[in-house]
Amino acid sequence: MNKNEDARYLPERLNREPTVIRGLTNNELLLVIGSGVVVGLVLGVLIVVLLLPGQLPAIPTSMALCGYLALRFGSDRLAAAKRNKPGAWFYRMLEWRLHHGSVSRLFFRKASLIDQDATWWLRRERVQRRLRRKRQDRLD
């Protein structure tokens, strides 16, 4: 390629977030581990209150264990769900589920996600027909 010649293509993967661990990006990794840690916190508090009163180290232990388990098993499921889909699919799916879920109806009164199902028509057919006729007239 000459130095004056431009690149003929721009790979789509240049704009993607890099994969960090087990097929997840940074944001997805934090979401998976964070959700595991929150579940571990709830389980740890329940264990301390119901089964082991006075054993406070059970809380961080269950948080670490659930975070690890979420990374180990949740990342495989999320990576499999993301396979062969566009890069922003995961974030749009989360947005869609938050918008249409029962939790959003309780906490959010105003819809922030545009939800429209319509067929788009550009009305270019007439213009293209005219251009074809003009080309045909020039050739004749």
From TrEMBL:
Pfam families referenced in this protein's UniProt entry, alphabetically: DUF3487
Transmembrane segments: 29-52, 58-75
UniProt keyword annotations, A-Z: Membrane, Transmembrane, Transmembrane helix
Protein's name in the database: Conjugal transfer protein
Species classification: Bacteria, Pseudomonadati, Pseudomonadota, Gammaproteobacteria, Oceanospirillales
